[in-house]
Each structure stands twice: as C-alpha cells, then as structure tokens.
User: What shape does this take?
Amino acid sequence: MELRINALRRRFRSLGIANFLVTRPSNVRYLCGFTGSNGILMVTGHDAHFITDGRYTNQAGEQVKGAGLFIYSGGASVADAFVRELKNNRDIRFRGRVGVESQFMTVEFYQTFRRAFPGSTPVETANVIEELAMVKNSGEINAIRRAVDITDRAFESVLPEIKPGVRELELSAEITYKHKRLGAEKDAFDLIVASGPRSALPHGIASSRKIRTGDLVTFDIGCIVDGYPSDMTRTVVVGKASRRQREIYRVVQEAQQLAVEGVKAGAKCAELDALARQHITRAGYGEQFTHNLGHGLGLEVHARPVLGRQSRDKLKAGMAVTVEPGVYIEGFGGVRIEDDILVTEDGAEVLNRSPKELLEL
Ligand SMILES: [Mn+2]
Assistant: This one.
C-alpha cells in the first residue's frame, strides 16, 4: 500500500499538486486497503489520512495500511466530518493545491471543502489513480486468474441446463450459485443472460423470458475474487443454428481472434479496436458493433485502459484486459464473444478456457 501511495504522490507532484483527496471507493481500496462503502483518503506530501464513520471502526483498524485513521460518529456527512478533522487535528498539515477526483466527488463535498478552506484550490483531475492501477502485481493477477477459472467452471456447469422452457433468470441464478460455491465473493455485475431477440441487447440483464428452440443466448458473466473480477461472454444457439446465426457468429469469432492476436506490450488500444472493427465492417455489420472492443480489469470491472476507437492508451505487460466484439441485430438477436487476457512481455495469455466454437445445444 505504501508503494501505491508513494506512486500517487510522485504523480500528483508532477502535476503541481501538493495533496490529493481520494473519494472513489475503489481507489480508496487500491491505495489503503479499505473495502467499506464510506471512507475517504487524503494523501499529503508526507503522510496520508483515512476517515470513515463509526460502523467501520474495527474493519478500518484491520484493513487500512499506510494511513492514519480517523473515525467520526454522529449523523454528519463524511464531507463535514472530514473538514472538521482537517481543521481541528494538528497532526494533519496540508496546504496548497488539492487534487480531487472530478468524476467521483459530490458537489456537496466540493462546496463544503471550498467554504472551509477558501485559501486552498481544488484541482479537478481524472484517471490519476486509475492509470497508476493499470499494471497489475502478481497478487492482483492471481486473483483475476482465480475469478476467471471460477467463471469458466460455472459456465461449463450451466451448459446442460440451457434448454427450451428454462427462464433466463434460472440460468443466471445457477451461475451465481456456482460462482459462490466455487469460492467467489459475489458476481462481478448483474449477470447477462439474453435469449432470442433479447440477445440483441448488449446489456440484456437476465429476465423472466423462457428460452425457445432456435434462440441465440448470450451469457455475459463474471465473479469477484479478492476484489478482482472475471468478465466473460459466450453466445450459444439452442437447437440447430440457422445460416444467418452461423454467419454472424463466424464474423464475430474471427474479429475476436484477430484482436486477441494483436494483444501485446506496446500495442495501441485504438488499433486493436480497429482490427476487430474493420473485419466486422467488411462483413457488412460495422453499424451493428455498437460499443468498444474491450476494457481493463481492476477493482472496477470496467477499468483503464480503454480498448476503443478514441483511446490513446497503450498496452503494457501486466495489464489485464477484455476483448469482446459483438454484432447486434434488432429483432433478430446478437452475438458477443469476450475473453479476459493478460498482456505479457512477448504477447498475451488468454485466461479463459471456455470453448469459443459455436455451441448448438
Ligand atoms: Mn466486459
């Protein structure tokens, strides 16, 4: 944790910032280890201070590393408590420009801070910690590997259950159950099980729709181990695939493979997106690939780097990313295939083992 706080300090100093106020929960966790829902971290030029409320006294004592601990009680907001602590506590010395996470600080907090410290200037920043967190250490990579393995096994175990008459929610419940039985903390997000025409919804969270013969069914599933996610998508056909289903599946699978083969340290994320997108566009489905190619995996499921057309990110060894092209045709259905991939010095390691050939169940 000290290493991470030091890295942040070097980074914000290079931006001409004297202190940094961390309000995004996953960034607080990344820097000091706290997993609760209410807590903020102030990193100054020479130390760090964590503040949370009385519900988390024990938890913060056990988890927080590398920062002084302040617990407040009563109904005050964390912003009020924080300002009070800064003003009253002589151990905390801070002055000058304070970096804030502009996407993750409430207006209330911002205003409270400005009123309390009119001489201090909040500096709006974005993605400072998210960029420090892109390259994973071995512990983080291990957690991702375990999450991916659990999701692979959960998917394998649900395959025999995919039959006409079964509801999407029953299948997602089975996967959730398997995730937890196999050692995950929880699902990484609301699981997507999207069948028939619903498979054309890129984020079709499982519904009460019953599976029918001839349906495409998209599973976008993932779990959390030690805070880190898996995130995998597979699309299957119930019964025999039609020519059109087969054709779309082939295009998406080829596009996915092209992009996966391009993953290596130094690759430009925008160019990886282009590899897949050009293939899909040549096949006539470019307009139906309506999202980015993929994203980094971290304490947030959708983390940096961004694998998309506008991205300026470049891959480095130790990053974990998804590659997940899709084609979605309204009223007909859609196909998406997604793997989790570890970027290595000389290429990439696809972590998922689930089959990618078209499964006709
Ligand atoms: Mn994903």
DSSP finds ten helices and 19 strands in the chain.
